[in-house]
Specification:
By secondary structure, the chain is an alpha/beta fold. The protein has helices at 2-22, 39-48, 65-72, 84-97, 111-115, 136-146, 160-163, 213-222; strands at residues 55-59, 76-81, 102-105, 120-125, 147-158, 186-189, 205-208, 226-233, 245-247, 253-255, 265-271. The chain is built from 8 helices and 11 strands. The termini are far apart.
Length: 274
Amino acid sequence: MDEEYLTLNRAVWDERAPLHAASSDYALARYDDPAYLSGVVTFDLPRLGDVRGRDGVHLQCHIGTDTISLARLGARMHGLDFSGASIAEARRLGERADTRVTFHEGNVYDAVDVLGAAGFDFVYTGVGALCWLPDMGRWARVVASLLRPGGRLFLREAHPMLWSLDEKRTDGLHITYPYFARAEPIVIVSDETYVQTDSKMANTTTHQWNHGLGQIVTALLEAGLVLTQLVEHDSVPWNALPGQMEELAHEEWRLKHVPDRLAHSYTLQAIKPA
């Protein structure tokens, strides 16, 4: 199964990368301003704290917008993604933005082989990353291995309750997908991506997994990390339920009607004991 999901998903992300780089949603021209930070990292700032002079790695970095934003906060950043096309776009953006980041092509499960063990003060993982990974235990062990003693994981993700909802329904919240991870993937077939584009995807099949919050926390604890923060949010940085959401500041979206019915996303932090 490993090779099948990687082959299918990588083909989709290789095709998405240039579409995203050209889209008005990512609006890469904004990074010509050396002070500009992505909406995601701007939202993270109150919990992220001071990263100046810290060695960081952004796992599953896609085209590098958040990675570059973290570097602009003073961190020495590396970015890792399994999509060669995404890494090529990220490197172009780094040059355009005049922001130094080292980008690496590689599967997240091979991150220690690519980047080395115990070399980072923090591991950053952003929204829409974990659903592409079948095994949280393996992921958590990679995170723990990348961190120096005293280093931390910073994770903001879409809430697994949000991932379980049918985004095509506009008449309420309908649970369609499993909340808990299963061995078999959720197979999604779509010729669309999540940005405004006139292009239709040639690669249309992806394999994804939802992971319950308890499964994620338990995986990190079993990898030897110590949980230091778990905050649930009533917003998420994309229009996850079209027709039911309103846009807020910093490119965040939430339900228009009674938003506190749903945990939209969460921030989790954990440290590797010194």
